[in-house]
C-alpha cells in the first residue's frame, strides 16, 4: 500500500502543482496584457473539453478558486488538448520507474482517475482526485484507494484483483529492487493483506472491511498522512 501512495507523490511532482510560494508570486504577477487575454480565451474555446465553471469546481473540491486557476494553467501546459489519456499516464510512470514495467499500474491508476470510465481524464476528474488525495478526509482517501483496487468496480476486492494490483506494483519497481525479491513475493504479500482485511473470511474485502483494517494498520495510516504535508 505504501508503494501505491508513494507513486502518487511522484505524479504530483510531475504535474508541477503550485507550492505556497508560487501562489504568492501569482498574486503579485503583473496583469496580463490584452492580447494574452484574447489568446487565452481563444485557447479556451478551441480546447475540446473545457472545464466546468471554476466556481462549481470550487464547491466540489477542497481547492480555492485561485488554486484551481493555477492547476488549470499547469494542466493545460502539460496537456494542451485538455484531456489526458492512458498513454500519458504510462509515459509519466515509465519515467519514474525506468527499470520496471509501469504499464499495468498506470492502467489501473488511470481507471481510478477516470471515474466515469470515459476513456479520458479531464481537468475536472484530475482535480477531483487530487482534492481527495491531498485534502480529503481519511475515509475519502481510503474510499479512493479501495476503488483503485476494485478493478472490475463491483464493490468488492477479491484476491485476484489484489494479486493483479500487487503484481503491477512489483512489475513497476522492476527487478533491481534491493533486497532482491523472490518470485513468490507478490503472492505472499496478497495472502498477508487478505488475512488482515477479509475479516469475515468470505473471500472478498468490502469497503467497511478495507477501511477498518487500514485504520488498524499504522504503516498505511502514516503513508496516507504524507499527502497532507504536500500543499
Ligand atoms: Ca471487484
Ligand atoms: Ca469479507
From TrEMBL:
Main location: membrane
Gene Ontology annotations for the cellular component aspect, listed alphabetically: voltage-gated potassium channel complex
Record-linked SMART domains: EFh
PROSITE patterns: EF_HAND_1, EF_HAND_2
Record-level GO BP terms: regulation of potassium ion transmembrane transport
UniProt entry keywords in alphabetical sequence: Calcium, Cell membrane, Ion channel, Ion transport, Membrane, Metal-binding, Potassium, Potassium channel, Potassium transport, Repeat, Transport, Voltage-gated channel
Keyword Amino-acid biosynthesis annotated: no
Subcellular location: Cell membrane
Entry superkingdom: Eukaryota
Ranges where the EF-hand domain occurs: 101-136, 137-172, 185-220
Molecular function per GO: calcium ion binding; potassium channel activity; potassium channel regulator activity; transmembrane transporter binding
InterPro entries: EF-hand-dom_pair, EF_Hand_1_Ca_BS, EF_hand_dom, Recoverin
Family listed: Belongs to the recoverin family.
Designated name of the protein: Kv channel-interacting 1 isoform X2
Organism of origin: Pelobates cultripes (Western spadefoot toad)
Amino acid at each position: 500500500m505504501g508503494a501505491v501512495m508513494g507513486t502518487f507523490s511522484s505524479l504530483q511532482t510531475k504535474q508541477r502543482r503550485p507550492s505556497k510560494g508560487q501562489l504568492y508570486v501569482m498574486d503579485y504577477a503583473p496583469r496580463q496584457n490584452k492580447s494574452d487575454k484574447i489568446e487565452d480565451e481563444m485557447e479556451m474555446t478551441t480546447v475540446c473539453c473545457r472545464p466546468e465553471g471554476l466556481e462549481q469546481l470550487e464547491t466540489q473540491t477542497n481547492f480555492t478558486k485561485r488554486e484551481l486557476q493555477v492547476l488549470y494553467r499547469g494542466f493545460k501546459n502539460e496537456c494542451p488538448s485538455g484531456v489526458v489519456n492512458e498513454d500519458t499516464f504510462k509515459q509519466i510512470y515509465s519515467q519514474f520507474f525506468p527499470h520496471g514495467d509501469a504499464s499495468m499500474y498506470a492502467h489501473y491508476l488511470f481507471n481510478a482517475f477516470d471515474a466515469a470510465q470515459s476513456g479520458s481524464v479531464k481537468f475536472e476528474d484530475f482535480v477531483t482526485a487530487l482534492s481527495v488525495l491531498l485534502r480529503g478526509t481519511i475515509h475519502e482517501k481510503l474510499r479512493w484507494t479501495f476503488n483503485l483496487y476494485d478493478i472490475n468496480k463491483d464493490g468488492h476486492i477479491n484476491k485476484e484483483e489484489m494479486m493483479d494490483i500487487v503484481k503491477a506494483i512489483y512489475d513497476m519497481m522492476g527487478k533491481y529492487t534491493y533486497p532482491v525479491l523472490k518470485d513468490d513475493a507478490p503472492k505472499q504479500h496478497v495472502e498477508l493483506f487478505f488475512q488482515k482485511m477479509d475479516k469475515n473470511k468470505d473471500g472478498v474485502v468490502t469497503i467497511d472491511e478495507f477501511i477498518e483494517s487500514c485504520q488498524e494498520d499504522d504503516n498505511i495510516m502514516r503513508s496516507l498522512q504524507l499527502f497532507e504535508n504536500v500543499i
